[in-house]
Design goal:
There is one protein chain. The chain has 219 residues and is α/β, with parallel strands linked by helices. It is 44% helix and 21% strand. The protein has eight helices and ten strands. The strands form three sheets. Strands 7-6-5-8-9-10 form a six-stranded mixed beta sheet, with helices on both faces. α1 crosses α6, α2 packs across α3 and α6 packs antiparallel against α7. The protein is globular, with a radius of gyration of 18 Å. 41% of the residues are buried. The mean pLDDT is 93.
Length: 219
């Protein structure tokens, strides 16, 4: 969910303006999974734009203050969540760490880098939510190490049904600065999309795999 519609629209606008999000319903992208998608998102690009970077960092910091006031640490997911977590932790004057996808295969075999106190109340920062698998795995690692995950914050979510179900099953709150419906609304209002393209993008969100299969079949 998003808690501030004005911020959601500003972030969506920034993502489009800096080229962090590309929409191409007529010539879809191929994700690593092989699925075809009319949207590609690389929020790392926002780090190179001071205005977008500041809006995102301050938006995250405000969400922590409002939604997770008991937080005692901020953790980023490797790798995209690391710089965002650092910016947020600095603004809140809180300890920061990051969580690897897997424990290191050398040294002390750590999965969580940085110092996490026993019983730490952690807010996890992610840049993008597709299915939610990677950040929920990070949440499991934090819990296993003795921390408590208060919730997950992300820059953007595709709002896919699989992610909604995954977070519900995990019992973890997810709050995003912006999301797919807001992005489509902003892009449509700007005149970036034809009516046909808007319909294609809406259909993908409802059933991504079916949309991908139909595109491959040429329907």
């Amino acid at each position: 969910m998003v808690t501030d519609e004005s911020l959601a629209q500003r972030v969506a606008t920034a993502l489009l303006d800096v080229g962090a999000v590309s929409l191409a319903p007529d010539e879809p992208f191929t994700w690593a999974s092989g699925m075809r998608s009319p949207i590609y998102c690389d929020n790392r690009i926002t780090l190179s734009d001071p205005a977008a970077r500041t809006d995102i960092a301050e938006g995250f910091a405000q969400l922590v203050r409002e939604c997770f006031p008991d937080a005692t640490a901020i953790a980023g997911t490797a790798t995209a969540g690391i710089p965002q977590a650092a910016l947020v932790a600095d603004r809140l004057d809180l300890p920061m760490m990051y969580v690897r996808a897997q424990p290191k295969d050398h040294g002390r075999g750590q999965q969580i880098e940085g110092r996490m106190e026993e019983g730490a109340k952690v807010v996890l920062i992610e840049d993008l939510i597709s299915t939610g698998g990677s950040v929920l795995a990070a949440a499991t690692a934090v819990t296993a190490a003795g921390g408590e995950v208060l919730g997950v914050l992300a820059v953007f979510s595709y709002e896919l049904p699989a992610a909604t179900l995954a977070f519900a099953n995990a019992g973890i709150d997810l709050i995003t600065l912006s999301n797919y419906p807001t992005l489509l609304s902003v892009a449509s209002e700007r005149g970036d999309l034809t009516q046909e393209q808007q319909e294609a993008l809406a259909n993908w969100s409802a059933s991504p795999q079916e949309w991908s299969d139909r595109f491959e079949a040429g329907d």
